[in-house]
């Protein structure tokens, strides 16, 4: 069948004849977001030296971005459903480009962190909205699973490309160009989106939920602050205890408040579906492990092992290659056999990889490090397709933007918490780790790798539980309650 030929879904709906071209455009947004994640990690040691940043400061460079993404993804998803997905997608691209340029020009750590916030505001309007666009143009469930697999492959490609491009930039023209590279890619995506992406909205526009939005921001911000700053200020200091108390109070208010709203920011009714709840928990654990892994690994290779930025980027290729080749395989497995097999494979890889690094030293044989990268890459290569497929399939068509945003938010929450915990664990393992990122940093990471392995084991357990017949029954019951007239995806 040719790319331009229309197909008919299982529900009898004609698919967009330009669906594969539109997927490619949407994938460009994933490219710059994924590229930004790994390319910035490679630049952290140089930023540490140039801007005199502490370990906590380096954490904030990453977590300021993921924190804002996690806070605004659901708002962006529901706003796109209301105002138009193409419109919000293009707005996000514009803000992301502006934020990237501001990061490149930042004269200090504080300005860089602030610019990362702007960048993340734009990023929050990209991936969940693009997923909703993909859902609209791929109406056949098998094709949709394949498209999601290709979507995941783009993430793997960006991760593979980021460390290499970032290493070249850092070693030649400077770390600021790791942010500037987003500008031309973003502008190309903006032009193509204006020309080819169709506009779409939800049949029913959801109401704005300002109270829920504020509570989400406060809960995530205070949790992240408490974890990152607890290592240096003391876990029992009044400020840290107050931050965690605010987190608990915010969550305690948020859940009953959202359940009482007719159109909440967070649709907690989705979580009555065990597969959906499991997909969200899996996303948190998988991306906590991934964010922590990248953060610790980058600093280990450059500061403890003495690699240049480019050599460190090249060293991650054994991990990245599986992030490129396995997501389409995972998508086909999901489309043909369901979520169980890829989730179990993901959990095994995510557990074995970090376990191999628990005794890491500056002189650990590089082949052993590469074996760990391969195992971890296999785990990450399988995990995204079942998460995303569960999030946007089986939910009412009017709420796919919100459902996709919850899945994306879970990823960013996981990444934020993982990086924060990694820094806290390392700081507690060495009195000098927060300021001296030298050879002793390797020993300080040991507890961090154990923590990351624990996240992988959780993915394995969730994969077993959420793919049972009982779990499937809860998903069907939830779908029936959410869409009594049968308007499911």
Report on this structure.
- The protein is an all-alpha fold.
- The protein has two domains: 19-199 and 261-482, MFS general substrate transporter like domains (Growth Hormone, Chain: A, Up-down Bundle), CATH 1.20.1250.20; 210-260.
- It has helices at 19-50, 55-83, 85-104, 109-123, 127-137, 141-172, 177-180, 182-196, 210-233, 238-260, 274-304, 309-315, 317-337, 340-355, 366-392, 400-429, 441-444, 446-465, 469-482.
- It is globular and about 55 Å long.
Q: What is the number of E strands?
A: 0
Tally of helical runs:
19
Average residue pLDDT: 82
Q: Identify the CATH architecture of the largest domain.
A: Up-down Bundle
Measured between the Cα atoms of the first and last residue, the distance is: 24 Å
Instruction: Give start-end ranges of low-pLDDT stretches.
Output: 1-13, 484-489
* Class based on secondary structure composition and strand pairing: mainly alpha
Q: Rg, please?
A: 21 Å
CATH class of the largest domain: Mainly Alpha
H/E series, N to C? HHHHHHHHHHHHHHHHHHH
> What do we call the CATH topology of the largest domain?
Growth Hormone, Chain: A
Main sheet attributes: strand count, strand direction, barrel closure: none
Taken as a percent bin, the fraction of beta residues is under 5%
Number of domains: 2
Give the CA-based shape: globular
Relative helix content:
over 70%
Name of the CATH superfamily of the largest domain: MFS general substrate transporter like domains
